């Protein structure tokens, strides 16, 4: 059986070497063709025949994987390797990169090997259908329903955009001109910058998969200008004093609010996501620690029980209060925050429709389930607890993303520095 390999050029002087694709079956069939892609040898894995993942900033591994599948697909249609002429590999590689029908000659006959005629929308529809039963490789669990829902929303917006332009959108249409127009279309629909970025990210997920499978050969979406838009968000965190205000609030006459408040406080003192809170059962609490595998990342975390959490567990006989829908919880949290008097004025700057706008709120209006997790991380950081230890619980992979996540004002940073200096002077 013929094999497809990727190897670097033999040049000893070049700091970057060209990646060659090799088709080998026997002495009679051993062809080499340049992919014209250059790689630093230190970044190349000879065993995997790919760029080491940490250096694949341009997504070139997807090109190699897609090319290999494309060649294997066309080889599988050949009855005998004697059909493969000297120029077969070169023509096949050129056809892949140009996105043209693949034709080669056998004697006097010309055989056409066309790229699958699956359209962009047909591919995305099939991708989403398969996602319903897909397993997240990081967690070994079914793909998160929220992720699948975001895929569906992205697909619906692509179809809406296509209808609005009265044009049929396909793989070859996804270029920088499309990117600019699609982003403008989403901005006119008043989506925030980060939401627009999420839709672009999902589109790139579809295209990366199609490229890997040899279905898409248009790589314009890999341009550094075809970017996922992302801006820092002005979400809030509650201070420890504000958490005490919530804890001290008498809600005995409104038990539905009391249960929501108690579960929220557990989140504030554990840093767990709302979905993970609902998975805490007595068997996951041992010797004063919560031991749980996080549903989103598949990482195991062990968290000591804070006195507030211990009090709530005792209140519900070793269990946590039952959870209700995320939407209802967010609604009730605002009501609870208002009753607790969390009335500080907060001005948030957002980007909608491509324009910055400032809006003023009272703090209780901005409380939601995720506020608990952000409050946990922020309060520990302000207390001087090591960032890397907090990150082990929150799941942040880099300190830069963690520091963007927490809510510490410039004034609070200055206060932390002043306290640090004061401690140093007292040593």
TrEMBL record:
The keyword Electron transport does not apply. It comes from the Bacteria. Residues 233-418 form the Tyr recombinase domain. InterPro entries: DNA_brk_join_enz, Integrase-like_cat_sf, Integrase_catalytic, Integrase_recombinase_N, SAM-like_dom, Tyrosine_recombinase_XerCD. The keyword Chloroplast does not apply. Keywords: DNA recombination, DNA-binding. GO terms for molecular function: DNA binding. One of its GO terms (biological process) is DNA recombination. Transmembrane segments: none annotated. Belongs to the 'phage' integrase family. PANTHER family: PHAGE INTEGRASE-RELATED, PROPHAGE INTEGRASE INTD-RELATED. This is Site-specific recombinase XerD. The lineage of its organism: Bacteria, Pseudomonadati, Bacteroidota, Bacteroidia, Marinilabiliales.
């Amino acid at each position: 059986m013929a094999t497809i390999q990727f190897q670097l050029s033999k040049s000893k002087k070049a700091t970057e070497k060209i990646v060659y694709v090799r088709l080998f079956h026997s002495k009679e069939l051993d062809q080499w063709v340049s992919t014209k892609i250059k790689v630093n040898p230190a970044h190349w894995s000879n065993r995997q025949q790919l760029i080491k993942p940490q250096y694949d900033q341009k997504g070139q591994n997807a090109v190699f994987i897609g090319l290999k599948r494309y060649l294997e697909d066309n080889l599988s249609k050949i009855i005998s390797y004697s059909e493969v002429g000297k120029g077969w590999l070169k023509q096949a590689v050129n056809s892949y990169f140009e996105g043209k029908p693949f034709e080669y000659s056998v004697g006097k006959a010309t055989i056409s090997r066309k790229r699958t005629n699956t359209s962009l929308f047909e591919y995305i529809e099939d991708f989403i259908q398969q996602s319903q039963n897909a397993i997240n490789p990081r967690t070994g669990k079914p793909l998160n329903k929220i992720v699948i829902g975001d895929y569906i929303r992205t697909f619906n917006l692509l179809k809406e955009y296509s209808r609005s332009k009265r044009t049929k959108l396909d793989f070859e249409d996804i270029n920088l001109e499309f990117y600019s127009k699609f982003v403008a279309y989403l901005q006119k629909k008043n989506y925030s910058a980060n939401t627009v970025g999420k839709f672009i990210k999902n589109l790139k997920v579809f295209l990366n998969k199609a490229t890997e499978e040899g279905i898409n050969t248009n790589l314009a979406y890999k341009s550094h200008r075809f970017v996922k838009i992302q801006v820092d968000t002005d979400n809030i965190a509650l201070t420890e004093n504000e958490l005490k205000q919530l804890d001290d609030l008498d809600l005995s006459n409104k038990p539905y609010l009391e249960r929501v408040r108690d579960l929220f406080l557990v989140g504030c003192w554990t840093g767990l996501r709302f979905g993970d809170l609902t998975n805490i059962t007595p068997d996951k609490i041992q010797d004063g620690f919560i031991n749980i595998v996080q549903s989103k990342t598949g990482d195991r975390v062990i968290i000591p029980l804070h006195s507030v959490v211990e009090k709530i567990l005792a209140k519900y006989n070793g269990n946590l209060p039952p959870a209700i829908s995320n939407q209802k919880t967010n609604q009730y949290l605002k009501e609870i925050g208002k009753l607790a008097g969390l009335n500080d004025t907060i001005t948030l700057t957002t980007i909608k429709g491509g324009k910055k706008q400032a809006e003023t709120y009272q703090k209780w209006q901005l409380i939601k389930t995720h506020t608990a997790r952000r409050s946990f991380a922020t309060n520990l950081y302000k207390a001087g607890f090591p960032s890397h230890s907090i990150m082990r619980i929150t799941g942040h992979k880099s300190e830069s993303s963690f520091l963007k996540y927490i809510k510490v004002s410039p004034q609070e940073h200055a206060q932390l520095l002043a306290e640090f200096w004061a401690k140093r002077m007292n040593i």
